[in-house]
Structure formats: C-alpha cells, structure tokens
Amino acid sequence: MNLLHRNHLFSLSEPFCFFTVFFLIFPTALSTDFSPTTNILLNCGSDRSVTEEGRSFLPDSSDSTQFRLSGRTTSTSKITDSVTGGISQTARVFTDESTYEFTVQSTGIHFLRLHFFPFTTDTGSLSDAVFQVNVLDKLVLLANFSATVPIVMDYLLFIPDKNKMKLAFIPKPSSRVSVAFVNAVELFTAPKDLIDNETDNVDLTKTVMETVHRINVGGDLLTPFNDTVWRTWINDKEFLLNPNLAKNYTSHKINYPIDGLRPTPEFAPKPVYSTLEQKNLVTEGSLTNNFNITWIFPVSSGYKHFIRMHFCDIVSLSVYTLKFNVYLNQEKVKNDLHPGDITHGNSAQPFYRDVIVPAQKNTKLSVSIGSSEENGNAILNGLEIMKLNDSSGSLITGFHVENSVGSGKSDTSVIVKVVISTVAVVFILLLIGAVLFIHLRRKYKQKGKQKKESDAGRTSGETGYPAAIVDSSSTASKHHFDLRISLEELIFATDDFDEKRIIGSGGFGNVYKGKLRRNGMQVAVKRGLNTSKQGLPEFRNEIMLLSQIHHRHLVSLVGYCDENDQMLLVYEYMNNDTLKSHLYGGGDGFRPLTWKQRLEICIDAAKGLHYLHTGFSQGIIHRDVKTSNILLTTNEGGEENNYLAKLSDFGLSKIGPDAGETHVSTMVKGSFGYIDPEYFKTQNLTDKSDVYSFGVVMFEILCGRPAIDLSSTNSREKINLAEYSVDMYKRGELESIVDKNLVGTIGANSLRKFGETAEMCLIEKGRDRPKMTEVLWNLQYILQLHETERRQEKNEFS
Ligand SMILES: *[C@@H]1O[C@H](CO)[C@@H](O)[C@H](O)[C@H]1NC(C)=O
Ligand SMILES: *[C@@H]1O[C@H](CO)[C@@H](O)[C@H](O)[C@H]1NC(C)=O
Ligand SMILES: *[C@@H]1O[C@H](CO)[C@@H](O)[C@H](O)[C@H]1NC(C)=O
Fold it and tell me: What is the pLDDT of residues 157-177, one digit of tens each?
C-alpha cells in the first residue's frame, strides 16, 4: 500500500489484459446452488452475450424485459488484434445523463457491481472520463469518479419495492472529456438473510453499502471463481500492523451449521473459513504472549462503516479453550467471544459478528484481536468493511441527489457542489486494484513469457490525452456552483484570523489553517491584503473557472469570500508543508526525502502541470512553478512518509487580487530564479515558460539547494542553480552537486536520464524545450530505471 504500487500501475501498459488472461486460464466455473431471484448481468456496449465465470452476460444494445436504457449513449470496443470477447472488451459510453431501468423481481438486499475497464479506443481513453453514478433516484454511488485502473465497484443495496430500479450515469459537464462509461453491470438478489435489516440501531433498508475491503484473513486471493456469490477476497498481510505477531493457519475441515442456519457458504465461502490468522504465540523463553494482533485499514472519514467479522475455530484442540476479544479503533466491541459456546460445541463451525462503526474523523480503522485470558490465543478468518451512505444518501462527500426534480429551474437532478478532494476514495480503489492487479500479474508472469521491461510505460493512461471524445460544448450552466463562503463562516473557521493559525505568508498576505463549520473540512484560507473593487467581477469569473479544475495533483479551490471588499480564497488543506521545506530549510524535523520519494513527488507535480496545460480548451499557464508551490500531504491510509504532491497557486495569476500586487498581468510575473529568460526578454508567455521553471524545480530536487543561493558567494556562477547545474551537467560533473543526503542512492542510469530531462527543460529557446507530456513520460521512465537499478543492487548482494 504505497506509492510504488500506484506508479507501477500507471506505468504498465494495458493492465487489464492480465485480467483477461487470468479469465482464460480457468474457463470452467464453480458449480453453485445459489440462484438469485433477480439476476441481471449486462455486457455493456455490446450486441453479443458473453460467458464469464460460467455466467452469461447479456448485451445491453437492445432493451429486454430485464432492463431499458434511455439517454444519449454510444457503444465502443477495445482496439485489439485478437478479439477475445469478454466483458472487458466493450463499454457503454454515456454522452449525457443516461439511465438503466431494471425490472427487479425481488425486494431486500441486492448485490450491485459496476465493472470499469478503462481501455483506449480509437477516439480516446476511457480513463479520462469523469462522472457520477446515482441509484434509485436518491443515492449517490460515485461522483467526480474516473477509473484509471481496472476496477470493480461492489455494493450491497436495499431495494424497497419490486419495481423499476434506476441506475443513472451522469458525465461531469465541466470536465475535459464529458462522458461516463461502464463495461458491465451485475444486479442480483443477495443470499437470503445475508444482512439483517437493522444492525446497531442503523436502519439498513434505506442504505447502500460500498465494499471497501473484503479480506480472506490468512488466506489467498479469492476470485469470483472461488466464491458462490462471485466476490473477490484479498489477503490481509499488507494491513497487519505487526506481521510478526500473526501466524496463519489452514484447515479444510469446515462444518457449516445445518438446517439452513447462518452462515451458509454464501455468507463466506469455505476458503475464507478454512484459513485464519492467529497469535504467533511464543513457546519458550521469558517473552510474554500478552499482545494483540492489529490490522489497519484505510477508510473514509465522516462515514459509518459496517464491519462483518468471520470466525471459525480450526486451531483449538478442544472446542471450549478459545476465548477472545475484538477491538475496533481500540474499543472493545466483542468481549469474551467463545466459539465453543457460540457453536454449541460443534467444532470447526463458522460464525460471524457484525458491528457498525460510527463516523469518525480518522481515515484509518484499526481492528484488533486479543485473548481474554492471559497468554491465550485469538483468531480471525475473514473481514468485510463496508462504507454506508451518509444521511443525505451519498457515498461521496458533498454530492447528493437533488429532490426537486422538475422544479423548473434546472434540467438536471444533480447539484454538484465543489468539494473536498476524493483522494481517500481514489486511494482505496487504487489499493484494491493494485492488490488484485499485482497478484494477477504474478500469475500471468508464471504462465506467460517475461514481458520486456522496456515495453512498460508506453501507454500510461495519464499521458497522451486524446482529443476526439472531448465535448467542448458542455457547459457548467447546468450545475450550480455554490462557492461563496460567508465571512462569518471564515471568521469562525480561523478563530477570527488568529495569528496562531497562520501557516504561510507572502506578498498577497497570510494563509490560515481553518476548519469549515458546515462540514468539518480542513481548509487553508488565503487572505489578500489589498483589494480593489474594480477587480471583483473578474475575480468571480476566475474563481468560477478555477473551481471547476479538479485533479488529483492540483490543490482544489473550495470557495471564496468577497464580503466587505475582502478577498478570501479557500483551498483544500495540505497537511505536510511544501516541497521546499522538505528539501532544505524551513521545515524542521523532516527526514530527508529519498530519491524515490523525490521522483514520485516530481511525477505528481508534473501530472498536475500537464493537466493544466492540456486539460482545457485554451490551456492554463501556471506562471509560478516553484518548490514552495508544490504542497505535500500524507497519503491517506498510506504509510508515513508516503507523500502525495499537489501543485498550488495556479490560474489566479492573471488577475490582480491574488496578490495585492500593484503590477498588472502584462508585467513579467514569477519568482526570481525560476523565470524563463526568453519570457523575461520578450514578455511572451507560453506553457514552455512553465516547463523552464519545472526544470529548475528538478535540479532543486536533485541538488537540495535553492534556485537562488546567495550563500555561495564565493563564486558568482553558483548563485543561479539553473545556470550552474546545466553547466555542471554539460561538463559531465552533475554527480558532484547532488544533494549529500542522496549520495550513493542514485543509480547512474536514472541520474543521467534525470539530468538530461532537466537540462532539456532549461533550453534557451522555448520551442526546443519538451512539452510536459514528454517530461512526465521521462520521469516515469526514470522511476522505473531507479527501481530496476535497486533490484539489481539487491540481487548482487544476495
Ligand atoms: C480459486 O479458484 C482457482 C480457479 O478455479 C483455483 O485454482 C484456486 O485453487 C482456488 N483457490 C482456493 C483457495 O480455493
Ligand atoms: C489490546 O488492544 C486493546 C485496545 O487497544 C487494549 O485495550 C488492550 O490492552 C490490548 N491488549 C494487550 C494484551 O495488549
Ligand atoms: C442513506 O441514505 C438514505 C436517504 O436516501 C437515508 O434515509 C439513510 O438514513 C442513509 N443511511 C445512513 C446510514 O445514514
């Protein structure tokens, strides 16, 4: 669960082909007695039915008794030499709000699965689509969603009446590629009594639950083949806080309760109950066995979670010996759990326990098991963690389905509020994708031939933006952006601009850390010093534009306030200071960044900048790319020192108020040491000026010293980092100016390629400099080089 996985994912070509390969290896399906009343399986964007895992997915190209599709849609298929069929090969693309209306024969809990395989078609890449998905006209499943890796979203949905069940796909209008898509949909009745209507006083009949983790504790990855309800279960190892304390165990002798008592194999299949983690008890010496096993899972803050824990005592010699406690977030939720009693003395009989964890601020959920008796054992076989919709019916903060359909004001039922970034959600998706993918890839490697290292990275979904499916006519007018934040709220959020809350300052004024009363969101409030009334309409327009820019690697604007001629800008809060403070000076107590971390941060920032340059019709030039404008945040749910980097302070440079600066936009703006000399001379600003500044940032990252270093007065040419490092590069002496914290950790190849790329960014003539696409591509390649070099190093040692 770290950035490494993520980058591997992005840099490998067509990861989903591994899925296909995987499916082909095992063509026969698990036989099952489970036959759901409602069982609708759609192969979207196709006119043929396909069989996967022994189940037949019907084409969605013509309506049937099971469903009706309405809206503006097209179908598309993957470009491949050999058409293997399969649900991953075709997609339904929605160019406007569109709806599947399903005819369900059953009420109660249903499984709903949405399959996304973001392949590239001849008109563009599906990974560029950003969209929302609503269900039952009232619940928001996904919003601001884009699938950058193959992913299957799994939901448990309560359908209150036998009737039409609506599933709506809504492209995000302001996005560059205004479409939505899906490759396959599964909707089927869940096994009888799978979930009680009420758990811990929460009414689940009005709630949709999203599976965020489904874990086969102590066991292998289970695919839909291994599960009669076609679920995927992953291994728990990477979530263990201290893997040494846990020991897995397997026994295939499982005795499900008879006479239809719960759980049946549909609750969790045999492989889940036949493996577990138990305490790694110390048998000798003075060490104590008084400890817990703890797992830490990334979850979304602000949402209730349904936790199902599966147990089966296959380890105890006598059925009555085991007795243990379960803690969620350090709180004891099950006291003296005694399998012998629960199963009435039946050995190896599965059981489960459900708990609802209240909404919390934390983005981590800890699950611990420990013995009730001193030095005793404790077990866990399976774990399911599901996110419950919030009280507004949404799984995504800030989005909900508007009730007043047809109120005349707006032709859409959706209000898009500008919101908190969806980092947490995306991260969890990536995580699930990563785990699956890595496992499958290993399988593929065993089977197939070695894929050449050099092939990798060619078709990264994030680079090489196609233009054909860009819908530039889409407007934001359909949606209301409610961006204005009252002065009163900001005064509250910042304790009346308390000095203690200042987290930054500059020519424009101060930046305060604050917390919005309405949703508890942490924000950074930027307060301009001077303001001029004339600028206000322009200011608002600009804000409207910026508020629509949402990218994982750009700090989002949350809102603004212009009451009493104040100019206040409210941004998402980044908890880990600037790249500059991490590199040198300013930030106390930061450990020096490793080369890999630096590369990853560099890649993140390059992605943000690349998006600014290419994501909009005219392109946006940042104008002030520098290390103090690259903000870091600790990756939610990630390990410490796993940073996510975002570019800040973009776009507002054209207008006055960002600054309280007296200069107008025709004046050369930027920061000393980063300014493109060509722009300086000609005053002609292009995106290549940003590329120049980015080159300076790259050398700063490598050398760990400022762009302008007045302390090196002993020699004039050393003052300007850009000049100095290009000079050293050309003389082949780049290695001698590398940050001393990095010495010995950078392989020759990655250093050479890095120097070459940075040097190209600093070429005098803008038109000869690379575009950000190329820079980004190189950086991803450098990271791969680095990983390869490190692997080789390791091999040499062993
Ligand atoms: C899961 O299914 C695959 C394919 O049928 C099989 O090879 C594997 O052994 C199964 N795993 C378990 C744990 O049953
Ligand atoms: C197990 O964890 C709980 C909750 O954090 C704690 O109260 C308890 O003392 C722990 N037990 C041991 C033996 O460490
Ligand atoms: C889920 O949303 C519905 C509104 O559609 C609401 O009635 C229900 O209480 C929500 N569930 C939870 C757990 O808040």
Answer: 999 888 789 999 999 887 667
